[in-house]
Amino acid sequence: MKRFLLACAISVIGCWSCALIAAEAVPTEDDPVAQKRAVELAAKLRCLVCQNQSIAESEAELAVDLRRQVREQIATGKSDKEIIAFMTDRYGDFVLYEPPVKSTTILLWVGPLLLLVAGAAAMVFLLRGRGREAEPAPLTEAEQARAAALLEGREVADKLPDKKGK
Fold this sequence. Notes:
Layout: H1 2-23, H2 32-44, H3 61-75, H4 80-91, H5 106-131, H6 141-152
Helix pairs in contact: 2-3
């Protein structure tokens, strides 16, 4: 009797765990071509909340809503260009990972090149400035004699004036 109750308990727990896992599954589309289009479009659109993820990757509520809108527009028969135009009209060029080149986005396209040129110019300027630094004054005869004596291991009476001028 104990074995029977244990087997029943295990089977009930197993069914519950399967039901919990199945509840988390995301329903798939009936049309695999439409699903593929939705995924490709979602990868081209930026999540406005996360800003470094596409709406396909993001779990933000806005990204989920945008994915739903993309699927709805695909279902109504709109083309990819029409869907992207709708999104940019509603959210601006920022929603695109690759915004078009125009006067308002030119800094996005030219900015990295300008930073590279400015960095190279600063590096050249700094390196050229190093060559212009004054060389240290040569040692006097007394300093050379003292250095030679120290290198030979002889003890030399300090005949040089100290730094305070004494």
